């Protein structure tokens, strides 16, 4: 009934938590008591430290009880919820030992990832590697051939929280490093990943995530101080526009709304960066904040363009905007244009790419070209402002040549400097540096200072140095 020619020792999985379990090998004759039926050991489970001990091996086949007798066994490992035994070669073959070379040893190492670290996974990208599973091994003990005729699939449980932005790789250990040759990810969810490999080896699951930029405490402190100073001067400028008496010909609607938009944008951005560790895990909140920042900064640019148009009309007509001009550029009309244009851009962006908001810094994501939903309108406005700026300079030069002799040269210079400086600063010249600051620490610092001090410039130009009151 049993193959009597087997005389070697093999690996067998016999029990799960003291309950009988089937060995997957089917080498014995049908209807006989062998390795394709439940087996157990009488007398309790030995431990790994016990070495070779004698135990009674028993089993059932149908209504027949099979008692195999007392044989030496050795526990090789207990990697999980089961035992791995080595059955020492018996003097007489019994069905329990009659397994062929198809027997598989499967082991799980609960702390092996501390030795075979994910940093041994070499990739061309500078990413953070995180071990997402325990290290497991699958081998065929009776053969040195590790290649399979069909891929083997195994499911690995995640031992750490899965980052949706991360990339998973099924890897195996090759002498001194983790590699992916012959292994791939079939499917995954937040808790498990199914790997498929064309060979047996030692496997693991590694997640790659983008490496955050190195923090610069000095730059962060400089940013904090500059933004706070800018916010103070934005507030002072708003109070000045609201409380001071201005001549009837002065229209401060654009200036007030520039201050409001940029004050709220800088304040929201500052608070977001200070509490980023709390906000970032809340993906919906992070996306809402990035969309609101998108709207506020864009509305600030639109109001800058409106200010440029008003300045152009002012210079062209040699006076402050008259009541007739205010009818053309009424406060209500300017408010609709100033905020509606930015709102339309944000709504269209959300409709086209709803997942484009909520980057690591709670800002617009850079992938899929979505950043151009902000850079595109900014480029158009800056280009338009540059054209208006050139026309204003030409018109202003022509106007100064035709001024009455009663106007002194100093007053002409003061008007020229004031209008030119107001145009350059208020219409966002510091933002031009933002296009070229990538990789340059000096340009990054210069952009940070100039951009954060827009409130200071507005207060100095329109409140301190202006004589329009």
Topology of helices and strands:
Elements: E1 10-16, E2 19-22, E3 38-42, E4 52-61, E5 64-77, E6 82-87, E7 105-109, E8 127-131, E9 135-139, E10 147-157, E11 167-174, E12 177-179, E13 183-188, E14 192-199, E15 202-210, H1 217-243, H2 253-274, H3 276-279, H4 283-316, H5 323-328, H6 331-352, H7 372-401, H8 409-426, H9 429-434, H10 441-452, H11 454-464
Antiparallel strand pairs: 1-2, 1-6, 2-3, 3-4, 4-5, 5-6, 7-9, 8-15, 9-15, 10-14, 11-12, 11-15, 13-14
Give structural notes.
This protein has 469 residues and is α+β, with helices and mostly antiparallel strands. The protein has 3 domains: 94 residues, no CATH class; 102 residues, Chondroitinase Ac, Chain A, domain 3, CATH 2.60.220; 247 residues, Rhopdopsin 7-helix transmembrane proteins, CATH 1.20.1070. It contains 11 helices and 15 strands. The strands form 3 sheets. Strands 1-2-3-4-5-6 form a 6-stranded antiparallel barrel. α4 runs parallel beside α7. The longest helix has 34 residues. The protein starts with 9 loop residues before the first strand and ends in a 5-residue tail after the last helix. The N terminus is likely disordered. It is a multi-pass membrane protein. Pfam families: 7tm_2, D8C_UMOD, GPS. One of its GO terms (biological process) is adenylate cyclase-activating G protein-coupled receptor signaling pathway. Keywords: Calcium, Cell membrane, Disulfide bond, EGF-like domain, Glycoprotein, Membrane, Repeat, Signal, Transmembrane, Transmembrane helix.
